[in-house]
Write a structure and sequence with these properties.
The protein is α/β, with parallel strands linked by helices. The protein contains eleven helices and eleven strands. The strands form three sheets. It has a seven-stranded parallel sheet with strand order 3-2-1-4-6-7-11, with helices on both faces. A two-stranded parallel sheet has the order 5-9. The chain is globular, with a radius of gyration of 24 Å.
Length: 318
């Protein structure tokens, strides 16, 4: 049967209907079908109820808020951090929503991570979702930065991510499903002055996360790279400042509404990205603009960063 007759018959049109109108109506019908298919796909949300989620660095800041969002959604939650008092407080705050396991753990230590994951599996039977959030941030000019600063940033921000990820992958492969969320930073896409150890570690996280996604997709495991800009988390209280001037500008910058994003909003976006298996999510308009400018005009972006670096303080180390 000629294509024209197939279209007119499928749409219930008379043979005398002009071909252009038949084609337009056929295109419209196909478009509606596509929209309906997309809506059906989006409606099949990943049900978090009963899932087991591990959040590193989950005792405060963004990590705690992500854990809280997961708990509210019905996940059983495992949080880990180095400070047992902060962990106990976080556990008490999360307990009204779900079953919580809090484990003291230094993610830079593979033995600590192995024991933490083993306790999670013993308690809940398995792990469905891992959020690699634990990180430290050091702020200061290169001349006030030591080799140990670079090593410590990589140990926690990068190797902590690797240790936890490699720890959960065997089980996720066996069950043919799993979700891994790696919290990177806009500093892992564009190297920001006075944050060089942090930038290096987060660049490594981005590379690991993107490569990992390609490697494990065939096992039913999704990997999401999260690229937040500055967030209002109160994290400036825990940053390590090399100069008094850096402490001042960083503390001000992390409180400006137009430059930063709410940590609560960021946590919701992260959980949504995990639900929908998104490959990458960039959080905050300033971060999106900086990434776009760097992608389109890398040389101009680097010149701008050079200028901004000249404006940053050069005070003596604290």
């Amino acid at each position: 049967m000629p294509m024209t007759r197939q279209i007119t018959k499928a749409l219930g049109l008379r043979r005398s209907t002009p071909l252009p109108w038949a084609a337009i109506m056929a295109g419209g019908a196909a478009g509606l079908a596509l929209v309906a298919a997309i809506r059906r796909k989006r409606s099949r949300r990943y049900d978090l109820r009963g899932r087991v989620a591990v959040v590193t660095g989950g005792s405060r800041g963004l990590g705690f808020l992500v854990a809280e969002e997961l708990a509210r959604a019905g996940c059983r939650v495992v949080i880990c951090a180095r400070d047992p008092r902060e962990l106990a407080l976080a556990r008490d705050q999360l307990s009204p929503y779900t079953d919580v396991l809090a484990v003291t753990c230094d993610v830079s230590n593979p033995g600590d991570v192995e024991r933490m994951l083993s306790r999670a599996v013993t308690r809940f039977g398995g792990i469905d979702l891992l959020v690699n959030n634990a990180a430290i941030i050091q702020v200061g000019p290169l001349e006030a930065t030591t080799l140990q600063d670079f090593q410590r940033a990589l140990d926690i921000n990068f190797w902590g991510t690797v240790h936890a990820t490699l720890g959960v992958l065997p089980q996720m492969r066996r069950q043919g499903d799993g979700r891994i969320v790696n919290i990177a930073s806009i500093g892992g896409k564009v190297a920001v002055p006075h944050l060089l150890p942090y930038d290096c570690a987060k660049f490594a996280v981005v590379g690991f996360s993107e490569g990992l996604r390609a490697e494990v997709a065939r096992h039913g495991i999704s990997v999401t790279t999260v690229v937040p800009g500055l967030m209002r988390t109160g994290g400036e209280k825990f940053a390590r400042f090399k100069t008094a001037g850096d402490a001042r500008w960083f503390s001000v910058a992390t409180r400006l509404p137009l430059l930063t994003v709410s940590a609560r909003r960021a946590a919701r976006m992260i959980v949504a990205a995990a639900r929908h298996r998104r490959g990458e999510v960039v959080i905050g308009l300033p971060a999106k603009l900086l990434k776009l400018l760097h992608d389109l005009f890398p040389a101009a972006t680097l010149r701008t960063l050079d200028v901004s670096n000249r404006l940053l303080p050069r005070a003596k180390p604290v």
